[in-house]
## 1
Amino acid sequence: GAGVSQTPSNKVTEKGKYVELRCDPISGHTALYWYRQSLGQGPEFLIYFQGTGAADDSGLPNDRFFAVRPEGSVSTLKIQRTERGDSAVYLCASSPSTGGGTGELFFGEGSRLTVL
Amino acid sequence: AQSVAQPEDQVNVAEGNPLTVKCTYSVSGNPYLFWYVQYPNRGLQFLLKYITGDNLVKGSYGFEAEFNKSQTSFHLKKPSALVSDSALYFCAVREDTDKLIFGTGTRLQVFP
């Protein structure tokens, strides 16, 4: 498809387990974003990539969260030692903008993570 | 740091009536302002944006928004609401970085 693809769409895990969430952006988009949306809240910024490098990771809540984008396309958000408070919908977005911030973001449908 | 506020958790309007969803922003420089809509079990969809120029911005599905610098507002409007407009609406702002900051959202309910 032509849109942002996120897998899995749903993930149920147990407290303490490791989780990986994958994002496949729109082809050619250089910027990639991860957000987290809890029930009844707006999307909360986690990290932003420009190409392969993390341009801003100020939103990652702690060192259990890590994200990579090794070839400048697909990105993986990794969560270690999951906690019940990590339960949320994790949104990925991409943008063709290379700077200046004027371009809109194109979002995937999200990965819903439930930590039991 | 930039931020946006959406003072209404929910807006109710009758079909055919005009609607307004409010947003105010706080930045230290020039703001880039956006509206997104989220339908149930769907991803966020871009509606419109203000970068520079005309204060009245027109977007998708008949929506428009008015940038007001003196009131630091960017309210979303539509002249005639449809039941299908019922969804969750998010205002967002960027300042000098590419980080997009979202508000808490306003649920729009349009009644037939």
## 2
Amino acid sequence: EAQVTQNPRYLITVTGKKLTVTCSQNMNHEYMSWYRQDPGLGLRQIYYSMNVEVTDKGDVPEGYKVSRKEKRNFPLILESPSPNQTSLYFCASTSAGVESAQYFGPGTRLTVT
Amino acid sequence: AQSVTQLGSHVSVSEGALVLLRCNYSSSVPPYLFWYVQYPNQGLQLLLKYTSAATLVKGINGFEAEFKKSETSFHLTKPSAHMSDAAEYFCAVTYFSGNTPLVFGKGTRLSVIA
């Protein structure tokens, strides 16, 4: 079954404690991205990756890092989380070509206190 | 640059009534347009997409959308609302298939009243 998985699904942490949210896809897609969803703001792209070792900033990259060492994995790293990073995070994987579509993970709800 | 405007952050319809969710886009090149649905506590699911083929696009769950270049619109419709359609709906635009980012609208929450 084609899917995008994220872990953890829920996380409560404290300001400044480094954390990583993992994302993995089994569809051999080259393009992956991270979004955050906030009420009234829709989804905003944090970072994206067009292939292994190729990453670039999206609309709201401040306070986040990513890496793409393997095609299937695209972890999101918060080196020093702050309360304004409390949000719902989605990883997405995109198929290429005319029939492209983004496949979204189930989401990670992060609370930073 | 691409952008999307969804008119109405909250739309409420009666069960059995027409659903109309509005989306207008801005793009300097021919767009690819998408509608996604998000049910409570779930991720996003693709409803339908326009990729420069037929202007009337049919999706899942009885939804369809029509691409109107002259109006720069891609409104989502369903003839008869069902209680299970209650969710948040997002319109999104990109300009190339595959490896380009999607730009999302802010979403429209659809409520269905019995």
